[in-house]
Amino acid sequence: MNFPVTRLRRLRKTEAMRSLVRETHLRPEMLIYPLFICPGEGVRKQILSMPGVFNLSVDEAVKEAAECAALGIGGVLLFGLPEAKDEQGSGAWDADGITQRALRAMKADKMLDSLVLIADVCLCEYTSHGHCGLIARDGEHYAIENDSSVALIAKAAASLAVAGADIVAPSDMMDGRVEAIRTALDAAGKQDTPIMSYAAKFASAFYGPFREAADSAPQFGDRKTYQMDGANLREAMREIDQDVAEGADMVLMKPAGPYLDVIRATRERFDLPMGAYQVSGEYSMLHAAFERGWLEPERAMMESLLSIRRAGADFIVTYFAKDAARVLG
Ligand code: PBG
């Protein structure tokens, strides 16, 4: 017998052979594209740290969504940049708020029927201080209040569902918000609207460019008292347990690339649908390397997405959604 008997290279000889034995696949319908909706008309404002990503007024966002639908992309995730901000973030639950208007415009457009419209639910884009909850001040000290924030977040979720969101996705990381949102949705007649909770969301440096895109950087302090410590895997499982017990229909992990082990652990332990969010910093970092000619754009992009799928994600929120859908054809 010739040595070695096992020659794994036999199955790598041609693209046809590799394709036959490929274990993980990407398809456009498992990609979700984030949209940042801003006031005005005809506005398409480039986000400096995210090449190819824009702040879009409602009319432009509808066009962008139509492009996504034509590419076979599964859904869009909506973020709002309101006209005005206040301490409470009242724009988040305004029936005529920026995201609510975008949702209504998108629901009215038949061309967008193939897209799942997902509304991010949080206060940070709407609060003057940029935190994801209400601030309680005590002299020099401040704290992000949990329960009063949850009540407002639940109100925002119901308002977004009524405006047309197919899924609501709370990204605030307050305790108890999934249950409060479920109750608010049911009370608003939205028993059939699923909740996709950002169940394990880490306090990450990789959100940097997003905060320019969504104008949501905290004006003081950081998010470490509500978003998770990046060192903790077991705690991530407890977060997911909690959200599942409160009625989450699906979960979203975030960021993706630096937390592939958390995605894998979640896949092995939970049976509900799970997405992963390849966040702004992951996108910008790759783009910076593309611009310098240091990485091949298409290959590096597809490899980054494939690794998230291989880790176990059913779907991926990514700023590469359109580019990847074009590659996938
Ligand atoms: C809002 C929110 C953030 C992101 C999604 N929802 C920012 C944050 O928590 O600071 C980040 C997305 C990205 O970086 O692409 N709570």
TrEMBL record:
Amino-acid positions noted as binding Mg(2+) in the UniProt annotation, renumbered to this chain: 239
One GO CC term on file: cytosol
Associated pathway: Porphyrin-containing compound metabolism; protoporphyrin-IX biosynthesis; coproporphyrinogen-III from 5-aminolevulinate: step 1/4
EC number: 4.2.1.24
Transmembrane segments: none
Reactions this protein catalyses: 2 5-aminolevulinate = porphobilinogen + 2 H2O + H(+)
Binding site for 5-aminolevulinate 2: 280, 319
Molecular function terms from GO: porphobilinogen synthase activity; zinc ion binding
One of the protein's GO biological processes: protoporphyrinogen IX biosynthetic process
List of catalytic residues: 201, 254
The organism's place on the tree of life at top rank: Bacteria
Annotated positions binding Zn(2+): 122, 124, 132
Pfam families attached to this UniProt entry: ALAD
SMART domains registered for this protein in UniProt: ALAD
Key word Metal-binding present: yes
InterPro entries cross-referenced by the UniProt entry: ALAD, Aldolase_TIM
UniProt keyword terms in alphabetical order: Heme biosynthesis, Lyase, Magnesium, Metal-binding, Porphyrin biosynthesis, Zinc
Family: Belongs to the ALAD family.
PANTHER family in the cross-refs: DELTA-AMINOLEVULINIC ACID DEHYDRATASE
Protein name as it appears in the record: Delta-aminolevulinic acid dehydratase
Organism phylogeny: Bacteria, Pseudomonadati, Acidobacteriota, Terriglobia, Terriglobales
